[in-house]
Amino acid sequence: MGDGLDALAGLPVVVFDLDDTLYDEMSYVRGGFRAVAGYWAGVTGGDAGRMYARLLRILEEEGRGRVLDKFLEEMGRYSRKNVRLSVGLYRNHTPDIRLYPDAAAALDRLPARAIYVVTDGHKYVQWTKIRALGLDRHPRVRRCFLTNRYGIRRQKPDPYCFLRICQQERTVPEQVVHVGDNPHKDFVGLKPLGFRTVRLLRGAYAGIRVAEAYDADVSIRTLDELDGVLADWFGGRSPAGVRRVGKGVNPD
């Protein structure tokens, strides 16, 4: 028993982001849009498929900020009440989402002392995703931190949840690796404290170039590459064979 605990103590703690790191966030978005389209098709007698397609087109053209507002405006149904109703339909739908294959394999395979998830966003929505993905009961995931449970100010780049992980594991930041996809917030608050950072190049931010302060220590294209990064770092060698993203403009 003692030897086993000693062996675990030498392994890193790995902390994953959720959206677009462990699963495809658009699969959740599409499910929410289907729920909204289905409801309004029933109310108006319209075609749910066409409404769903329109929601996706608005998202593509204008981003997330006003998708539901514009959708309701186009139908002549805009009101604060209907916006709240549509947001509720979106947030309360039952997600049909799956872990990326490389994420499922990594969770089972990685040589880690402990695995955590830290995610920003609406706490009910994020918890619904975690449950749908089975992360709340995954045998290797010790805990999932929803940053908004501790206040919006605790969202990344604030290191609050990561420091709590250090405290819980009785370890130091240098023994903790954060894997995320968003260079605007996932790494800039952690690097000055000594946390190791890995950027996963997929999802909406895959092509974004940022200043060095915002970028991760290394970048990978699939979680299958993470084993090699951990072996390099915690085996006493410098990271090799991993693409670094070039410097760019400091994000606003």
From TrEMBL:
Pfam families: Hydrolase. The keyword Hydrolase applies. The lineage of its organism: Bacteria, Bacillati, Bacillota, Bacilli, Bacillales. One of its GO terms (molecular function) is metal ion binding. This is Haloacid dehalogenase. Keywords: Hydrolase, Magnesium, Metal-binding. PANTHER family: GLYCERALDEHYDE 3-PHOSPHATE PHOSPHATASE, N-ACYLNEURAMINATE-9-PHOSPHATASE. The keyword Thylakoid does not apply. Transmembrane segments: none annotated.
